[in-house]
Queue: 3 jobs
Job 1
Amino acid sequence: MAQSTADAVALPAPAGLPGSRAGRRRRKPASRKWLFVLPALAVSLCVVLIPVVTTTLLAFTDWNGFSLPRWVGLSNFIALVQEPRFWQAFRNNCVYTFLFATLPMIGSLVFAVLLMTVRTGRTFFQVLYFLPVTIATVILALIWRSMMFSPTSGVVGWLQSVGIPADNPLAHPDTSLLGVLFVDMWSWWGYLTVIYFAALRQVDRSLIEAAVVDGASRWQTFRHILLPTILPTVMFMLLMSIIWSFRVFDWIYVLTEGGPGFSSEVLATLAYKTAFQSFEVGRASAYSLSMSLLGLVAIVVYLRLQARRERA
Amino acid sequence: MELGKSLTARLFVYALLGAAAFSVAFPLALMVLNSLRSNFDILITPLGWPSEPDWGVFARVWNEAGLGRAIVNSLVIAAGTVLVVCTVSSMAAWAIARKDVPGWMLISLYFLATTTIPVQMFMFPLYFVMAQLSLINSPVAVILIYSAIFTPFSLFLLRTYVLDVPMELEEAARIDGASDFRVFTSVILPLISPGLLTVALIVCLNVWNEFLIAITFLQNAEAATATARFYQLTGRYGNNLADLMAVATIIALPTVIFFVAVQRRFIEGISAGAVKG
């Protein structure tokens, strides 16, 4: 009896599940399964939920991280929308996410299909393409910064010395963001390829053979047999690409630190620098909050589109 | 699927696959090759072959940069995180998969939502609280944060393994008088152990490579993980690229070997979520 009271107090049944508790109670009178969810919830509450709520509140304060936070209402947000740096970062985020969610999607799909057409070497190519994903971003970023793009010690410098007009994309405001994006995509497309390849292999072989017997062209086979089957995977990876790329941090921080100027600044680096270099934690929280909300908008739009597509 | 029937078509496909493989391997090869050359040679051209390879560089940077310590730190943090993640997420996965907890749907949605939240949305309060508690540079704080970050993914992966465990087995154990805890440890855990292994592999690799939290919460050389230590060294070895590439090679090599050794299970693990939907 004491036990079921504790159960009811700790976790009242939500309205969404009427009656399910009563029914189960009769079958398993001593179920204390909610205890099994508790450790996971406790860890997540301490590290994620409580700090997220705190960050949200901090966004309305002026705080240097040590003294007492001072409530300043909306002034952080008012300052933020008047700041060119914020809009630059936001625009960079949008460009980055758009390109990151489209170019590798298409490229990886092409390579996954190519892998389907060969017999030997599938595993070899998959493992090789996946390799950069297993290496720390900071190492890869440094290889690209100092061994590839650098005009003094990199391949770009070597190209210049043999007379090919190459330049370090990271050093120029017009190309710095694209340079970072290129390295990120270089490291990541193999991951997508491996996942698409796994999805393509689930496609029923007999369907493909039937299509070939019926005289379907390669494009028709892809368009009408392969693509519909792997579409859920593609859409899922698209959503993940949007979520992941919108919070890009490591690549920018190591390759350009947001520069030159603010030309490759994104909201994640802006928030981080504001908190840990200038110790304006309230303002940094406002950046974080806008970043999360804008990311949330992207997800909602995506889910809306997805729902509409399913209804149609 | 046999799209490439003719020899030319097949050669063309292999040429494309090979070109892509080359573009992936080339920068990685530069890292290894240039670690064996002298810094002077690198500045003349990054593309030279190490004609007099300096194999001693690895032992030298290992000692100079304190890599042994950093690698032990990485292993301790990885092991701690794997232990916490596997424990809490397997328990939660069982309860949620069996829908035996009131609000299981809300709890699942909560964990799903946490995976979309950027780290910057919760790291500032954590940092300043940890600073107050003198937990900066402590592996405990980082293990706790990593555990929270990797639990949702692990929970959803393990849930699919739990769903494959027949209910009859659980009920049989219950009829024999086993408690929830006993059913969990002697029926569920052994049967989902392949899933736990996959989780452990993926968590280890991610912890080893993680950057943002590691550089923020582990700031001195003694506490840093291998990856954080590498970042610290980019300042110190900034103009000694040969040594820096040697450190990079030492840190990258274990994960590459590890991945190649377990690639089948690893790829199955990461694609399971995406392919099954």
Job 2
Amino acid sequence: MTPSTYTPAPERRFNVGDRVRVKNANPPGHRRTPAYIRGKQGEIERVCGRFPNPEELAYGFDGEPRRVLYRVQFKQREVWGSYAGSNHDLIEVEIYEHWLEPA
Amino acid sequence: MSHAHPHDPAKDDGPPSEHEILSRAIQELLEEKGLLTAEQVRKRMELFDAEFPQRGSRVIAHAWANPAFRKRLLADGKAACAEWGLDLEADRLIAVENTPRVHNVIVCTLCSCYPRALLGMPPTWYKSENYRRRVVREPRAVLREFGTVIPDEVSIRVHDSNADMRYVVVPMRPKGTEGWDEEQLASILTRDTLVGVALPKV
Amino acid sequence: MSPNPADIGGQAAGPIDTVDHGMKFWEKQANALRNTLTSRKLVRLDELRRAAEDLGDRYYRLGYFERTTEAMRNLLLEKGLFTRGELDGKIEEVRKRYDS
């Protein structure tokens, strides 16, 4: 099954299958990268497209230039210290490109 | 039909809270300033009440009945719905399918993002702090609270709709529904099955 | 720990009230108002979310629609769509209408 892309992102940094790490930053202000996933490593599951940056939109700016949004897949046992479910449980989170580094 | 003031409260909802008064005051002020009309708000209310909540079960029932539609829905949820005549407005939909090996469940930990144009308003539990806190970390325990037990050999996939995408679950079609028409199929596709906290029951 | 009061995924919490308590009439109208504001591009959803987060500790003391209504009020005041004085006046007018 081909993961869907909503808008093209030809100049993207990452591709489906790439291993990435979420930055372990804690900046103030409106962010859409949940604290629980910061610093964690996962794999690009799909490229969602390019969207205006919500961190800027939140304050009345136009959010341009658009940023690439990815869905990143993580193993639950690697996200939580003592994960109580199955070893093969996963969590998928949408992360903007500027929050990602190659792992 | 009585011609009550358009902003009079429904009689069964009790005396208005401060927030109800605030909300009505904001709306009336914006109407006076010509920034919106009561009719626009009323039309949105109708869409949320009467139109949106009907759609999800029909779309997924159609996907169960029609493998080509199912494929298109999984590839591009919004486009597939548009082709079928449903405008999902701002919702960029990703449909995630349950399989014998994978069970999907949806949350928005940061607020209450939800495919409203497909499912209507989210239930109070979806917006609750405890659901947002716990389902990402202990999905199996949370599903048990809803009476849903997923065996260990089936992997649970939690989707945090934390940015611009919206999600709907395509449950597995249960045995005993062979030969059912789409209306019958839709009747077991409750909202809770489409968010992933319940399984369709024959 | 994130300073954003909305960023709560993974925190310890008690049982979930799994019953859907639905929406009161005013909540449905508040939701439609919010939706009308965003679809008419008077505000952005991102601004509303940020305004809710700006409530700080108050975030946890309010129910869902109380929070979204206060966030809407604060954002619309911030954007100058109406003044505090205009709002206070309208609130009194609405309150009187209910009391009568």
Job 3
Amino acid sequence: MTITGPEKNSPLAALFLRDIRTGRRVGGGTSLGIVFFLILVTLSAFAIGPDLLLLGKIAPAILWISGLLASLLGLDRLFQADHDDGSLDLLLLSTTPLELIVLVKCLAHWVLTGLPLAVIAPVFGLALNLPVSELWSVTLSLLAGTPALTLTGAVGAALTVSLRRGGLLFAVLILPLCVPSLIFGVAAAGASETSLVPFVTPFLILCALTLIAAVIAPVAAAAALRHASM
Amino acid sequence: MRLSASNLTIERGGRTVIANLSFELNAGTCLEVTGPNGAGKSTLLRALAGFLPLCSGAVSLSPAPQETLSQLAHYVGHADALKTLLTVTENLEFLASLLDAGLGGLPVAEALAKLGLAHAANLPVAYLSAGQKRRAALARLIAINRPIWLLDEPLTALDAGSRGLVRQIMAGHLAQGGLIIAATHAALGLKGQELRLGAAS
């Protein structure tokens, strides 16, 4: 697939296109994320053993933890490449607010990593003996929940942007903040017609978490980036 | 347009790099910032671009425009700000959209041709030499019109022919009433003044 655009896009559309292009050319970023997701799911299944009943019961949790780790893959580099090659300076010279730039960069990253995970998750769910009735709830919960993970991760990526080996610090900073999304994500993914809590309750909280992250994270990340460029 | 800086003091990492620096620059002139390594040339340029906070002093433009200085300025630093995976044209088209200040500019293909890069327009930047990357970075100066150019060692890695080209482009910008502030070790030979920064204390 080639992406072509008019010669002068709006700054944000141009940024989105550029990030999608670089992400795709960096060596199959999307397919690599899906393979990583598959490996995590498979490893969990091997670790738990051939108890199909147990596997089906904890499948939402396995899918969510694997999805969480896979969607944070490469996120620590979200701003680092721009910092290293000097593009970050130019993002600051634009008339477009840095907060919006951060939001668009997160969106591009999510389209390349989070979205494919959510789409492929039901297939892996089948492999984990997830009841068919719960397949769609896994996808929906990942669709609604992974943007919050990307946005939260962007704050960590901005804070560690000038560190050479910031990967571990990034994980230590960000993973605890993913707990709320994880709790309500697994609750929504595991909800079925017979369960005590209906799907909608945790799902709405999950959506709220994503919306809150969309408001707070760009401001926090932009502040960190401005400081990093000093 | 006239740029005046008064009593600038800039710190970096808790150390005062520039103290009480004042200068004025008229439209159509170039300020060549010279001095030994570590004198604070890059620091001054980054502060003018708005990346570093000023500890004291102020930079003002007259007549006062609606935009901030950083929205009217081009900054070309040591890093070329090009994505190695994208072609030269893709890089410049992105920058043209990002930095567009509503003042027009040359079409990307024409800007590249002016810097002698027409043949490399569709090559990924990763395949370019250091001098070609430098020229691709400088091409944004004419692809997007902005009145103030902040250039950090603009002639690094360029061969004699390309240096002449870039000097010509800079002279053209001055002739149109633009301002250039350039940190440099090699004299640019442009109309303007020299600002010599002393060794860091």
